[in-house]
Every structure is written in C-alpha cells, then in structure tokens.
Design a protein that fits this description.
The protein is an all-alpha fold. Helices cover 73% and strands 0% of the residues. The protein starts with a helix and ends with a helix.
Length: 399
C-alpha cells in the first residue's frame, strides 16, 4: 500500500502545481481502468491531500487561483513583492500540516459527528441554508466602508453569484480537450487572477527570502480546521466557502494565509474519510470510495478505513517535506523578473490553458468573470465579495 500512497503523492504534486488540473481527473481514469480498488482509493486520498499542500505555490508566485486558495492571492502576492513569498508558502504549509495531523488524531469522533449532523437531511439543509445566508451577508457587509461601497459589495456578491450559477450548471468540465478539469478554473481565473495581471506594475520581483523559523499561528490553524471541517459535512458546500468564512474572521495576512491552508486540507481529509461513516460522498474522491463501500456505518468500519487513515498521515508528512523545495524552485524562477513581463506571460498561458480545459465556452466564462472581477478593485470594495460565485450556488441548492 505504501507504493500506492507514494504514487498518489506524486500525482497530487502534479495536479497541485498545474493550474486548472484537478484530482477529479484521476477519479475518471481509475474508474475506467482495471486497478486494485483499495489501492486506487488510497492513491486518490493521498493525491487529494497532497494537492492541497502544493496548490498554494502557483497561487503565490504566479497568481493562479484554485478554489480553496483564490482569496490568498492578494496577501501572498504582497508578500512576494516584499521578498517573503517563501514565508507565505511556509505559513500555508504549517496550516495544512497541523490541520491534517490534528484531524487524523480525532478522525473517528469527527466522522461520528459528521454522521450525526448529516443523518437528518431536512434539519441539515435548513441549518446550512441559514449559515450560507449569514456568510453571504458578512462577506458583503463591512462596517468600515461607506453605504455606497456597501451597495457595490452587495452587487459584487450578486453578480459573482449569478456567474457561479451559470458556470456550475454548465457541462464545462467535459467540453475541453481534458475532461475532469474543474469548471471553476476559468471563472476563478477571471475573477481573481486576470484583473490583477492586467494592472501589473513595471517593477522587478525581489529575491525571495525564506524564514525557516516562522512563528506558528495556532489561531489561524484553529480557524482553518473549524471552517474546513464544517464545510466538508454537506454536499455542494466546498472549500471555497471555507475560504470565504476565513476571510470574515481573518486577523493579519499571516494568520489568514495559515487559516486558508488549514481549511483547504481539513476539507480534503474529512471528505476522504467521513464517507465511510456517512455513506454520503462530498467529492469525486469520496464518490469513488463510496462506490466500493456504498453503505456508511460507524461500527464496524471497513478494513479500508485503516489504510485510508494511514495514507492520510503519510501523504501529509511527505507533502510537508516536498512543499518548500518545490516552492524554492518557483521562487528562484521568478526572482529578478519584470513583474509586468511575467504577468503578460502568465496571462497568455492562462488563456491557452482555459482553451485546452474549457474550449470556447471556457474563454467566454473567463471574459465574463474578468469583467465582474474588475468591479471591486476599481470601486473600492473587498475582492472577498467575489466568493459569491461559490456561496450563492451552494445556498440556492439548499433552499
């Protein structure tokens, strides 16, 4: 089984470092191939966890968002321009690693809680609908902004939410050359990455300094663990919602980055294991595992639960070891470059990737998302309001 874990770590590293590529692509491949089912499940779990460690690297140094890291683009970008991009990655790494190991240590009680909270569908749906409504308002409303900017923030939530409803109901994930790509890629790229790239200044990226002894932000880990764990309990409520929740209760940039890393990984860990108890998959990986053991039960747990727990721990430790060396490669590649020239290159690459993954439809979504994503920075409200693209579709699903 160790070989399956290591193969999963390798695949997760590739998907995490490759913009637009998601672990769900591996789910499609394994579902069609004749492989050992339990080995395939262990590989998928390991890949899903590793992906959450590595996907922060392209977000930080290239400004390319993933669902759980989109809101970290701007604080991590500020740190890159100050020469502390490696510190940003290290903060996210600490959040991911500590959240994963903490959750693995209490995985059985956590899964039991997941079963209890999701056993009553009517009650669960009502609770989630209320929580999502509150989150949408909290993201839009900020006591520090004027009434005019508050109206802009509400409009930003509504526009991005409408865009999310259209994109998430389209067959975008299979319309490009590579099925299994996330339909969120062109939308999040347009909302967050492209507007920032278009406004790039003509400055050089400074050499990136690492700080191996970064202070542990335990409050950020706790926030991320709570947000990622909660959103993993209900279908249609993703790591993007966890990121939005972290943006509401964030402290400084360093704590915020730590909480995002923790939320992203906690969501992957609990959705991978809890499906064995609840019998209700929350992700593509969970759906594959559920196909092997379709009836969730707390006791007795299937033997595969032991291997999945072991794979969660090992993949977290290995991913933790390889994250900073990979970040170092990215840091050396961008140091000294003109940010404007790098932005133009990244923009061209994103256009090409969008066409590969989403075809003409993907380019249309990218263009529409860019228009919506340009509103908050130009009118002076928070880009966190753009997470309406995730929150509103989830809310509609629960009403």
């Amino acid at each position: 089984m160790l070989l399956w874990v290591l193969m999963g770590v390798g695949v997760g590293a590739v998907t995490g470092l490759t913009p637009g590529l998601h672990v769900n692509a591996l789910v499609l491949i394994l579902s069609a191939a004749e492989v050992d089912p339990e080995g395939g499940a262990v590989m998928l779990v390991s890949a899903a966890v590793t992906h959450t460690f590595l996907d922060f690297i392209p977000t930080t140094f290239l400004g390319v968002p993933d669902e759980g890291t989109a809101l970290s683009i701007f604080p991590s970008h500020r740190m890159v321009m100050e020469g502390y991009g490696l510190k940003a990655v290290r903060l996210s790494l600490y959040g991911s690693l500590l959240s994963s190991l903490a959750l693995c240590s209490v995985i059985l009680p956590a899964s039991g809680l997941a079963y209890a909270l999701t056993s009553s569908q009517h009650y669960g749906r009502a609770v989630v609908a209320v929580l999502l409504s509150m989150l949408a308002l909290l993201v839009a409303v900020d006591a520090r902004i004027s009434a005019k900017r508050g109206a802009v923030a509400l409009a930003s939530v509504a526009l991005s939410g409408a865009l999310g409803l259209v994109v998430l109901s389209s067959p975008l994930s299979v319309s490009g050359a590579l099925s299994g790509a996330s339909p969120l890629f062109p939308m999040l790229t347009g909302l967050y990455a492209v507007p920032a790239l278009l406004m790039a200044r003509s400055v050089r990226i400074p050499p990136q300094k690492d700080e191996p002894h970064v202070m542990m932000r335990t409050s950020g880990v706790a926030k991320g663990l709570l947000a990622g764990g909660l959103v993993s309990l209900f279908p249609g409520v993703s790591s993007g919602v966890a990121a939005a929740a972290c943006s509401v209760v964030k402290g400084d940039d360093e704590e915020y980055i730590t909480s995002l890393g923790g939320a992203n990984t906690a969501n992957a860990v609990l959705t991978s294991f809890a499906v064995l108890v609840t019998g209700r998959p929350r992700s593509g990986v969970g759906a594959y595992i559920n196909s092997l053991h379709p009836t969730g039960t707390m006791y007795p747990l299937p033997e595969m639960a032991v291997w999945i727990l072991i794979s969660l721990v090992i993949s977290s430790l290995v991913a933790g070891l390889i994250t900073m060396p990979m970040a170092g490669l990215f840091a050396r590649a961008v140091s000294g470059l003109s940010y404007r020239r790098l932005s133009r290159f990244i923009l061209a690459a994103l256009l090409a990737l969008t066409f590969v993954f989403g075809g003409v439809t993907g380019l249309i979504v990218l263009g529409a998302a860019t228009v919506v994503g340009s509103i908050p920075p130009r009118l002076g409200c928070s880009r966190a309001t753009l997470m309406g693209c995730i929150i509103i579709p989830a809310l509609i699903a629960y009403l």
